[in-house]
Amino acid sequence: MDNRDAKPPILVIGGTGTVGSRLVQHLSSRCYPVIAASRSRSQTDGHDHGIVFDWHDHSTWSNPFRAAAGPLRAVYIVASPVVDSAPIMMEFIDFARDKGVRRFVLQSSSATESGGPAVGKVHAYLRELGQRGEVDWAVLRPTWFQQNFGEQPFYIKSIKDESRLYSATSDAKIPWVSADDIAAVAAKCLTSPDPPNTEYLVLGPELLSYSDIADILTKVLGRKIVHVDLSRRDLEKRHQSFGMPEESFKMMGALQTSIKFGSENRTNDAILTLTGAAPKMFAEYAESAKAIWEPGDPRKHIDVYA
């Protein structure tokens, strides 16, 4: 029996993003019907029922419900690409609830506590609704993605052209997590018979500093990669040179300063417990992506800050 014939679809907002695209693939491979939502119609080609959804264009909010031609099983939410995204995200949650959606899974971050700024307010709102019995919910708080090194121009260019990694974290450790593992956890939260009604810190299996990452890339690429530790201000200047908006590069500087003083020096077994599979190591990702960092690779990379 094909589950697509029996189950209402799951809406994945940000369905072409780093986690969202993997989540769409993960769900589809297990025969769950999926609606992949993106700001650009062309980016959703190839996904089940790819549709246009723009946080800042209310006229697009009904698109996934029209595409479903019935109720939605659940909604995966990735933040609007602005710093103060909470009001519009909470407005959409209420909009979706009015359309009959019961379960919401929010992608937050390990650095954001419930009730904190931006997405932290959405986290608190879902918790409040859940405590009143009005929604089923989960909040995923993943740490820094392994895929950052192969998908963000800031890292790609310095590794390819300079054989360097830049940070302002000194020798602090981070439990770098695979986006594949985040997607697997998200799928579990979206489809489990029992509602999670909790938050999960989604952390990778090993604590690695930027120097450790450089050493792994050295082995994978066969040339020396060096970590350069910058001041917070110099790091912000580098991000600014890649077109990152001021509010974003200042936030990045603050986050890396927090890491420097130990905020990410932790790990757990959440991925293994929730999915039954061991989380992926960084070396595995580096091997799969090494062509990206080869000098002279002809592929063009999109400025993610545009």
Give structural notes.
This protein is an alpha/beta fold. The chain has 2 domains: 3-142, Rossmann fold; 148-174 and 205-265 and 281-293, UDP-galactose 4-epimerase, domain 1 (Alpha-Beta Complex). The protein has helices at 18-29, 63-68, 86-98, 119-131, 148-151, 153-162, 179-191, 210-221, 232-241, 246-260, 270-275, 282-289; strands at 10-13, 34-38, 51-52, 74-78, 103-107, 136-142, 164-167, 198-202, 226-229. The termini are far apart. One of its GO terms (molecular function) is oxidoreductase activity. This is NmrA-like domain-containing protein. InterPro entries: Ergot_Alk_Oxidoreductase, Ergot_alkaloid_biosynthesis, NAD(P)-bd_dom_sf, NmrA-like.
CA-based gyration radius: 19 Å
Question: Taking strands numbered 1, 2, ... along the chain, how are they ordered across the largest sheet?
Answer: 3-2-1-4-5-6-8
Series of H and E elements: EHEEHEHEHEHHEHEHEHHHH
Termini separation: 44 Å
Largest sheet: 7 strands, parallel
Question: What's the level 1 CATH class of the largest domain?
Answer: Alpha Beta
Task: Please tell me what the overall shape is.
Answer: globular
CATH-derived architecture of the largest domain? 3-Layer(aba) Sandwich
What are the segments in which pLDDT stays under 50 over at least 5 consecutive residues?
42-48, 297-306
Tally of individual domains:
2
CATH T-level topology of the largest domain: Rossmann fold
What's the CATH H-level homologous superfamily of the largest domain?
Answer: NAD(P)-binding Rossmann-like Domain
Number of strands: 9
Structural class: alpha/beta
Classify the helix fraction into a percent range: 25-40%
